[in-house]
Every structure is written in C-alpha cells, then in structure tokens.
Amino acid sequence: MHKEWATPLPGAIALVGAGLMLAVAAAASYTDPAAMVFIGIASIALIVAGVVSLVRRPRLALLDGPILVVSTIRGKRTLGVGDVERISVLRSRRIVGSSDQLVIDLHDDRLLVFGRWDLGESPAAVVERLQLAGLPVEIAG
C-alpha cells in the first residue's frame, strides 16, 4: 500500500504565478513608492507560499509497514508505528462553517498538523486510510 497526499499542484503553481503578476504590478507602480512596497511585499509572500508548497510535495506519504513520511522545508521525516502516539481529526467550528485538521501526536511530544490545503483532500478521508493501514487512530465521539 502506497499513498501520497500533497497540496494541489495547480494551486501551488497559481500562487507563484499570482506572485509574479504582483511583482510586475509593483514594478509598474514605481511612481507611488508606498504602493510599490505593499504590492512588492504581497508578491514576495505569494511566491514564497507557492514555492514552499511545491518543495514540500508530497506533504504526507503512507508506505508499507505502515510507515509515514512527512515532508518539511528541512527535509523528510520517517515515522513508524512506534513513533506515533495517536492520529485524530480536529474539527473547528467557525461563524460561517467548520474546518478539519489532521493531527498526528508523536511520542516525543511533537505535534504535526495538516489541513486540507496540505493534503489535497479531506483530513477525515486521510485518517480513514491511515486507520486501515494499522496506525493508531482516535475517532472523536
């Protein structure tokens, strides 16, 4: 069994593209220094967010064993069943709706949190897949 979850590629590329368009807009607004600075900062933020999303692909991978591979900016981290204390879905209610996050509690007191953007699909669906693989999943009641 091998499954990977990552930020949707078109979304990450769109962030970089929008950042580049804002960079052009910042350059075009050279007559207004304040606008140039603010648009330039927004441009850099979008480009960085897009590049980070592209570098960390796939964000989470499930390998046989079961073994989890988590991608970060600093590299990949491999986690076995013995490293994972519990996996769960954190549901947060907002004024207009709710959001889910996949939470992986590690035995070394670290916490890994993934949203839908990180995984490219519903965190609840990912948790089901991880449970089927034999990882310690806690279902909220």
Largest sheet: 4 strands, antiparallel
Helix content: 40-55%
In N-to-C order, the SSE pattern is EHHEEEEEEHH
Please give the count of helices: 4
**Arrangement of strands in the largest sheet:** 1-2-3-4
Low-pLDDT segments, ≥5 res: none
Tell me the structural class: alpha+beta
Radius of gyration: 19 Å
Report strand %: 25-35%
End-to-end Cα distance, whole Å, is 28 Å
The count of strands amounts to 7
Instruction: Look at the structure and give the mean pLDDT.
Output: 92
Give your account of this protein's structure.
- The protein has 141 residues and is an alpha+beta fold.
- It is built from four helices and seven strands; from the N terminus they run βααββββββαα.
- The strands form two sheets. The chain has a four-stranded antiparallel beta sheet, with helices on one face.
- Helix 1 (9-28) packs antiparallel against helix 2 (33-55).
- The chain is elongated, with a radius of gyration of 19 Å.
- The chain starts with a strand and ends in an 8-residue tail after the last helix.
Please provide a brief summary of the model.
It is built from 4 helices and 7 strands; from the N terminus they run βααββββββαα. The protein has 141 residues and is α+β, with helices and mostly antiparallel strands.
